[in-house]
Structures are given as structure tokens and as C-alpha cells.
Specification:
Blueprint: E1 2-11, E2 14-20, E3 25-30, H1 36-48, E4 69-75, E5 83-88, E6 95-99, E7 105-106, H2 108-114, H3 120-127, E8 128-130, H4 131-135, H5 143-156, H6 160-175, H7 184-203, H8 207-245, H9 247-260, H10 271-304, H11 311-322, H12 324-355, H13 368-415, H14 419-483, H15 487-507, H16 514-536, H17 543-595, H18 606-649, H19 660-712, H20 718-747, H21 752-758, H22 763-801, H23 806-864, E9 869-875, E10 878-883, E11 888-889, H24 896-913, E12 922-925, H25 933-945, E13 951-955, E14 967-970
Parallel strand pairs: 3-13, 3-14, 8-12, 12-13
Antiparallel strand pairs: 1-2, 1-4, 4-5, 5-6, 6-7, 9-10, 10-11
Helix pairs in contact: 5-23, 5-24, 6-23, 7-23, 8-22, 9-20, 10-19, 11-19, 12-18, 13-17, 14-15, 14-16, 23-24
Length: 975
Amino acid sequence: MKIIALNIYGYGKITETEIDVDQQFIQFFGENEAGKSTMQSFIHSILFGFPTRKEQEPRREPRMHNLYGGKITVEFPDEAGPVEIERIKGKVQGDVKVYLADGTVRGEDWLIKKLNFIDKKTYRSIFSFDVLGLQDIHKNMTEDKLQEYLLRAGALGSHEYDEMLSAIDAEMKSIYKKNGTNPELNHEMDEISRLTEKIRVLEQTEERYKTLINEKIKTEDSLNAKQDALFQLDMVRKQKMKEVMYHKDIKEWKTLEDKLNIEPVVFPEQGLERYEKLRHQVQQTDRDIALRTEKLKVLKNEMDGVTLPDKDRLAYLEGIQKREPDIKQKNMEHSRLSASMEALEEEIAQLRRDIGWQQEHHEVDDSNIVKESVQTVLSKLDEVTLEEQFLIREIDQLKSDLKQFDQDIEHLEQEQISDERIRVKKEVMEREFELKEKEKMFRLIEKDYEREKRERNRVKKGQSALIIGISVLALLIGLFYLINTNWLMGGIFTVIGAVTLLLLMLTNQREEDGLKNDYQNEVRELKDAIETIKRNNNVSFDLNDARDLKMDLKTQRTKRISANVRLEELKETLALKETQHDSLNTQLAAIKDDLKVNPDIENKSIVDAIHTIREIKQKRNQINRHRIEMDNINRELQQFKKTVKEDVAAFGIHYDDSTIFYDVKSLVSGMYKDEAHYNRLKDQINLLENEIKVLAERNEDARQETVQLLDYVEAEDEEEYYYYARKYKEYQEHMERFKELSEKLEEEHFDYDARSELSTYLLADLKEEEEGVAEQMETFNSELQQEQKTLAELNSEISTLESDGKLSEVNHKFEMKKTLIQNLSEEYMSLNYIRILIETHIKAIKDERLPVVIEEARSIFEKVTRGRYINVTYDDHGITVRHVNGQLFHPLELSQSTKEMLYISLRLSLIKALKGYYQLPLIIDDAFVHFDKERKKIIIDYLRNEVDDQVLYFTCNLDSTIPSSQTVKLKERVK
């Protein structure tokens, strides 16, 4: 099945919406609240019925719309054309109608059978994917649970069987459990064991009770036997009473039987009524014949007084009568032509006034050549006029532009900046640029100079420390030698120390920053020069603006020169066009003169004038044609008058144009009346003659039938016939009474033998037998009362023994527990039997379907994983997959998206395996949100290219790789 179109009358927030889905793969894209879930529910509802309360699903009845439901157009492989399935509000699941391509209408039974009896829940569990179903795979499942989930996806497609087995197991455990105490059956068995022990103890003290029970049973049996005998006697007494009651009827029945025991009286069926009817019929027929004979004489006399008209004269008059429409038509045509000629003359006069003609000028040339030449001249005139207007507008515009150019040039000249100021500005800008570059260079040099200075100072400080150390050491050594009176060495070292200090003092003199000062002076001089130029000259303007002003001035002057040249050219062109305009007006004036029309009419009306001239000529020709037709009509009318006038005089008719046809019609009508009257009299005479003949034959038949009735009973005359009639009537009355008594006695169960026997008895004998039966009943009643008294005494003693009620109460409880245990056992065995059936069914499905599904799933799983997994196997341990490197993995070891791929592969394989039973579209609701971009592309490509069934993919993430022809965008088209 393939869905072609959706037509939503009203469902949820979606109303009056039509969507074309005639594609094998359709992407439904929409943001949240766009109606994706509503659209899926709509498809399910139209195919399988609106949701009921048990389904716990919203019905989505529109709140702001009257209609609820819609229509789906689908294609079935075995149907000739598209099929429309419409479901609207009605009963709980809606009223559905199926419209076939041949115009026939089917009902819901046809649709259920067409869908192979699949229900909504099964369809969703097999043919629908959603993100929630795939998320179930990633719950905290054990290996067994995950295997069961995957096998269900590949073999059953639904978890209904698992739910049924779980419910049955729970119910069985609540009834009975081995070694259990809480289940109901275990509890009841313990109870009945305790009751059995209690009954055994109570029965040992009830021997007397049993004896009394036996006597009671014997007394009740005797009492029942006497009651049965009494009942039988009562039946006999009632029978005797009935015999006494019906004894008179039995006697009468026997008497009638004896009377009827003779040869039956023979008489015709309804003989008396038939005889009297025939006698009355003969008398009435004789009277009718006499009346019709008298009327026949009168009609014949009247017929002799009627004269038939002459056929030739009648035919001639009819011929004149037939010419009436033609003559009247000619008179009407003559009047019409005369009125038409008058109207045409008036129209010609009006047309002449319109073009200014005093008289008709038929010699005027109104040919198409003249018309086309006029149109050509008018076209040129319009073209020249438009060009003149355009040139005038252009000239005015150019004059306005020239004024604007002059104003702009004057304004720009006032705003111009002199070349000297521009030169000074350029010099200032060059010096400022030079100042910036020098400052930048000075900052770089200063940074290097300071760095070098710090490095020199650091080296110098090291050298100074070294020299000071050497000097101090030399002085200390010299001082040591001096103290030790070694004056020479002491003096030498002292001199060395002093010289070293002197050299240090000389080398540590402050450095002059000569280079730095030179750069600072140069920068300061350049700044002073720039400031001096700015004070002496006005350079507070932008150089680019000054250049733009000079360029604008030059541009405006160039434009003004071009506008002047253009103005002169346009003036010359305008002069030429005005000359051409005058020439065309002269040509049009000559054309007006040739047409003899009023020279003051507008030029654009010349073509209309030509058409008017043509119309005048046409109307004049039409008047001439009408005149010829009128002459022909006059000749034909005169010829008719001349021919008919002499002929009708022979009939006594005076010819008059206005009354001739009326007179002829009256004469013909009179002839027809005479002829009709004659024929009517003739028909009446024939009818009366036939009626008299028929009545005579009928009278003769009645007389013969009367004779046959008399002969039937061999009667000589009417009196004897009536005698036999009375005898027959008496016999019939006896027979009716006999049948009535027989039926009455049979209803009271008196057969023939009983009736015959009872008819021999006297009423007194029967009453005596009844009294004897009554006496026997009184005897039995006295005995019965005595035994009832004995039974009451036994019951009283038994009641005394049963006053505690322990034994009966325990027995009653025992029977109740016994019945309850039996019911629970039967319920437990029934549930166990159902469980075995379901398990057997699941095993049969798995054994039959799983090998096919697994084989197909292997191919699908290999494709969607791009060859990373090359095999899917199934054995007693469950499902395993093989990696391309040869390793086997249990599903629990796979990644999240790979498990989802395996689940989808099994589900798609199951759908292919069920293709022989169901061919339904797949509905996918954002099932691939956890996939990365590559895996999503793989599964989408597989669904588009490899799946044979139609796929409806609902998503809130638009896939741009799917063509727009296969994409339906759901927007907020809701109310």
C-alpha cells in the first residue's frame, strides 16, 4: 500500500489541509508544535479508527472546527486505481467509507480485510520507529533481556506475547506455588485439611443422629409413595368428573355418527346460489337485448339524415388552409421590410448629419487603401506630436539644468582654495610626516641608546668594583709592608693602590648625551617650523576636500558645455518636427476634402468617417434589396388572390384578404363535423349489433348451464331442485356439528374407542364410579396425616441434636472449600494450558521466521555499517555479530549507535519477511537523533534506495540532502 495524498478536514489543530505525498520516500519537516505527531496520529486514526478511552491516547477533536476526521488517498497493488479512505465523526472509532476507482463505495469490513486484519497496536510495533523505542535498547538491560528485546524485534515485532506470558505467570503464582503458603490454592488446601480432621472428630459422637436420619429417610420415602398414590387417585377422580361432564356431548356425537352412516347427498358446489344467479342473469339479459334493439333503430334513422362531404372539395379547401402560414408570413415579411426601409432611411439621415453630408456622395472612395493611408498619416502625426512633446520637455529640462549648473559653478568658485594655500598645506603635511617619522626613529634610537647605556653602566660598575678591590688589596699589602718596615715593597704597593684609585676616578666621569640632545633639538626645530607655517598661513582644511572641490568645479563646467550643445541639437530637431507636423496636417485636410466631410471634424475621426460612409453605402444597398424583395412578395400575393377568388365563390365564400382563411377554416370544420358525426353513428350501430349478439350468446349459455344443474341432481323441475338443496344443507349441518364435537372431545383426550365405550354407559353409573374413587382418597389422606405427624416428631429430635450446628456447619464449609479448590485447580490448569500454547506458538514463529529474518538482517547490517560487521548469527545462546576482523560480539558489547543499527536491521528484515502478509508504509519519528552525520546519511540512503515500501520520515532536523520534491515542510498552518 502506498499513500498518495492526505486531506485533513479537522484533526487536532490542523484543519482544511491537503498534502501530496506521492513519493516512495517523504521527509516531513517541522519545528516543535508544527503538527508532526498530529499528522502521524491522523494516519493511524484514518486507517484503524479514532482512539478510544481504553487506548489512553488523545482523540484530538478540533475545538474551533466542526469537521473531525479526513481522507487518505492510497494505492493498493491489486486495485485498478487510487482508493480514497474517508473517516469522519460518528461512532466511537468514526464512520469510514472507502471510495474505489470504479465509483463503488465500501465499508469498514472491506478495509479491515484489505489490511489483512492488522490492528493499530501491531502496526505501530512493527512498521513504526521512534526515538523512544530505540532508547529502550540502552536501558540497564542484562544480556538475556537485550537478547529477548532483539529477538522480539526480529521474530514478533511486538512485546504482546511477552506481556501475556508475564501476566499468565503472575496469575498462576497467585493461585498456586509449590511449597508456598500465600497463594490462594495453597491456603485453601491447608484449610480443607483442618476441616477434614474436625469432621472426623465430630462424626464419632453422632451415632444416634445417624439412626434418626435413617428413620427419617424411611418415613419420607413412605410419605412420598402415599403422596404419589393420592396424586394418581386424584387424577382418576378428575378423569371421572370429566367423563360425567362430557357424557351429553358423547351421546350427541354417537347419534350424529349413526345419522351420517349413510350415502352422502350429492349436490353441485354452491348449486343453489349458481341456479338463482343464472335465472336472474337470463331475465336481465332479455331486458338488455330489448333496450339495445330499440336504440339501434333510432341510430339508423339518425344516420340516414347525415350527408357525407365530397372528398375532392374537402381536399381543395384543406390545400387553401395549408397555404395560410405562407401567405401570413409573406404579409408579415412585407410589413417588416417596409418598416426596415423606413428605419434604414432614418439611420442614413443621422449618419449623413454626423459627417456633415448634405446629400449622399456615392462616388467617394472609401476603400481600404484610403483607410490605410489615413491611418498611416494619423500614426505619423501621433508619432511626431509625441516626439515634439518629448523634445519640448527635454529642452525645458536642459534649461533648468543649465540654471542649476550656473548656480553650482558659482557656489563652487566661491568655495575654491588657492593653489598657494594648497602648496603650503602640502608642505605642512610633508613636514608633519617627516616629524612623525623622526619621532618614531628617535623613540627607537632612544630605546637602543638607553639599553646600551644600561649595559655600559653595568660593565663599568663591575670594572669599578674590580679596580676598587685591587686598589684596596694593594693598599693593604703596602700598609702591611710599611708596618713591617719594608718600605720599598710598601711604597710600591701603596703607589699602585693610589694610581688605581686615580684611574678609577678619571674613568668614572659623567658621559655627555650628545647624540640624544642632537635628535631632540632637530625634532624641536621641525615642530617650531611647522607651527610657524600654520601661524602664518590658513591651512585648517582637508586637502582631499580641496581637490574634490576643484574636480567638482571642472566636472560642472564640462556638464554645462555638454548641456549647451545638447540644447542646440534639440532645438534644431524640434524645428524639423514642427515642419513635418504642418505637412501632415495639410495631407489630412486634403483627405477630408476628398471625402466631402466637414473640414472641422477632428483628425482622429477621419477613420470613423470612412466607416460611416461605408455604412451609408451598405444601408443604401440594403434598402434596394428590401425593395426588390417587396416587389416579389406583392407579385406572389396578387397571384394567390387571383387564383383563389374565383374558386371559393363556388363554395359561397366572398373573398376578403382578412377573412378568407377564417371562412375556409369554418367550412372545413363543418365538413369534418358531418363526417365525424356519420362515423360516430356508424360505430355506435356496429357496437350495438355486437353487444346484442354477445348478450344473446351469453343468454343461451346461461340456459344451458341451468339445465346442467338440474340434470346434476336428476331434478325434473325447479321445486325438486330446491328439495335436494334442503337435503344437502341438512347433511352438511350434521357433518359440521359432528366435526365440531369430534374436535372438542379430542382436545379433552377422548379417542374414538373411549367415546364409543362411554356412549354405552348411563350417567348414573359414571357418577357412582366417581364417588368410589373419592372414598379411597379420604382413606389415603388419613394415613398420610399420621405419617406426617411421625416425620415431625423425628425432625424435632434431629433438630435437638443439631442445635449446636457444628457438624452441619463444618460439612457445609468442607463442601464450599472443596468446590473452591476445584475451581481454582481448573483455572490454574487453564492458565497453564494457555501458557504452553503461547510458548509453543512463539517457538514455532521463531523456528520458522528467525532464520529468514536473520539472513536478511545480515545483509542489511553489513550495508548500514559499511562492511564493519559482516555477519549476524542466531543459535541457542541468542544473537551475535561478527566483526570484519573475525571477532564475535554479543549485542551488549556493541556501541550505542551500533546496537540501534542492529535493532533497525532486524526490524527492516522482519518487515521484508512479512511482505507476503502486509504491504504497509513505514512511519519513522526522529529515530536517528543519536546518530552522527555519517551514520544518519547511511540509514537515510538505505531507506530511500533499498526499502520497497513507502517511508514517511518525520523530523525536526531538516536533511538538506533529500530533494525538495520529497520534502513536506509543516508550518504553523493551524487555527
